[in-house]
Give the backbone structure.
Amino acid sequence: MDAEIIAVGSELLLGQIVNTNGRFLSQQFAEMGINVYYHTVVGDNDKRLQDAVDIAKKRADLIVFTGGLGPTKDDMTKETISRMLGKELVFDQEALQSIEAYFTKSNRVMTENNKKQALVLEGSDILANDHGMAPGMVLTVENITYMLLPGPPSEMEPMFLKYGYQTLMKMMDKHERIESKVLRFFGIGEAKLETVIEDLIEKQSNPTIAPLAGDGEVTLRITAKHETKEKCEEMIAAAEKEILSRVGQFHYGNNQTSLIKELVKELTVRKLTIAGAESLTGGMFQEQLTTIPGAGKVFKGGIVSYTNDAKSNVLNVKNKTIEQFGVVSEECAIEMAENVSTQFDADIGISFTGVAGPDTQEGKPVGTIFIGIAFRNGKSLAKKLSLSGSRSQNRVRSVKYGCHFLLQEVNNLS
Amino acid sequence: MDAEIIAVGSELLLGQIVNTNGRFLSQQFAEMGINVYYHTVVGDNDKRLQDAVDIAKKRADLIVFTGGLGPTKDDMTKETISRMLGKELVFDQEALQSIEAYFTKSNRVMTENNKKQALVLEGSDILANDHGMAPGMVLTVENITYMLLPGPPSEMEPMFLKYGYQTLMKMMDKHERIESKVLRFFGIGEAKLETVIEDLIEKQSNPTIAPLAGDGEVTLRITAKHETKEKCEEMIAAAEKEILSRVGQFHYGNNQTSLIKELVKELTVRKLTIAGAESLTGGMFQEQLTTIPGAGKVFKGGIVSYTNDAKSNVLNVKNKTIEQFGVVSEECAIEMAENVSTQFDADIGISFTGVAGPDTQEGKPVGTIFIGIAFRNGKSLAKKLSLSGSRSQNRVRSVKYGCHFLLQEVNNLS
């Protein structure tokens, strides 16, 4: 089945909202084994919507519409489809009753245009709207299936999951499944990674291997198609094994995880506590740690030592260290990490000091960053970075590198 | 000018990412007076991309592409356009040098495929990429203008704002200007704000007034069209005056500002320094402060006291206070603010303590938050919030309320 998703609504073309419906349905279709080759966004305009449908009919056998089912004059999706397919709009009694009940219940007067929402294409299968008024509908005409869904994600998503999904699975009556797994890497660039596994990507057909880069990280999505879930997983595992034999040292997790989540997970398992001392990152490492519910089990707290005074007076970094090496130094990073772990009685101290930009500092270029790591009764070390991004990128990547280095150190403990 | 925006990338069709580029460009075009009639999303597939361009050529005279300019084999936007238009791809020396410099600076080996990013369509105007490697380009062939932009929003948005916008404005050479101003409000809901100025919105035609809500803030965008900039500004000023006469007490700034930027601005002007003590917000207030270059003039640093131990041992909150009132209390918030300002020798201390969720704490419901403010040699106070969002929303809104309360206090100083 080849699908096209058409989002109808001028507010999308004015940039007032973003087409999250396209994303949601694409995710669902990818999992269901339905190919999505195009998304189209078109405004509340009868002629242009008709043109978009004419184009979609030539390249898809499933056309899914979101939006344009509401009560106002702007809403015209089903009216346009009705005319194009020569199918009358008729009242769906259940939808009508549910709309009337809604207004009675909320003590509001039902205006006449609200009734319009109960009109459906004759002969279509109705998808009930449990979170709003306009029902969805599915209709197949001349081997093309039209699925009309409401625009608000709060109505569309549950409607699709509860009713639309089953309807399509039944129609397809097919046994092929699609499974995928995302491998996450840090510390290697997209181009480098792709060069190393180029032959695997080139010969891709089933499973496929697709790289994606963002924010200093790279992911590889492995997608397999087969009749059984077991066989899919087997094919994915084989590809994963081959990939990891080449770039395993940069792999940190799978699917919906992140470096900070992996760090919290690892510290929790090992019952280790942590405290942070941050300069250029201004608290970002600690803020990210505490986005995770349950971080309180491993995170004690920390200090944002944004000025040299704060480093010496609050964090107790020796004046001699600052005078001799500067605050942007391996020595200062290590002292910061050691001192913060002592002050907060934590097993591990981690520190971030460096030049985020735009100005240089202590004659050291923008992007010079030291990350200190100190273990209670154990070793201390510092890693140097030379980043070349904007101030914001340098801060974000420093935190990611901090998690990356610390994960490496913690994994080496046992 | 009628535009179509084509986003290229299979990751969009798989639902891995959402097309925020379509939204951003649509907003920009709406302001520039360029009509956007369609968005199209197409995968990394030469044939389907070509089909999409053939369709767009029939219905648009400006076709804007996002994505597919990267170094990998998947990236094929400029190769496809090159072939369709019969324009060679040639190396842009400036882009090539900047790519080489990037790799030299970051001490990484440049793989051959990275050079590909410096290839541009012959005869096109180049849009420099200040935040990445692939330059953008603009080329007009047979009365249709093609604009190619990179996919990552962190590269595309600044490139468009700094270079793409001007290029299009010059090409249009039109005399009607469009000017807009965004008024920002905090502490009032969207529905309430809209009710208060409903009559102004209803009679809107020129200037128009459009409300938009998000993350606890509401903005009003006033947009005026006229031949001269002066007249536009006059029209905007009149609308602004009327709006502020009704809801001026909630207005905190205009256009691309934020509560935290206004706070840094105000503290800088008044030469006041600040330190922060954070519990539920985990460093978010300090992290946001330090996103702003020059924050070092006002921000001394602070403490993330995530555990009760950290509050008493590092931040020196009295055990008696914690035992008697709990850490989620007015009394604890005030002590935290007072102590952090003393420890960091700052003019102002601000503190955040409360229950972010999902679990309750000290028998106090999720969303109970106290914000403490202490002035050196001056008054101390605490404000209580009862928020009803998710953990993440409660943290974000706490920081915004903190800025809001502190701005009010600081503005009352003189």
User: Anything to note?
Assistant: Chain B has a mean pLDDT of 93. The first helix of chain B runs from residue 10 to 13. Chain B touches chain A through 91 residues (CB under 8 Å). DSSP finds 16 helices and 17 strands in chain B.
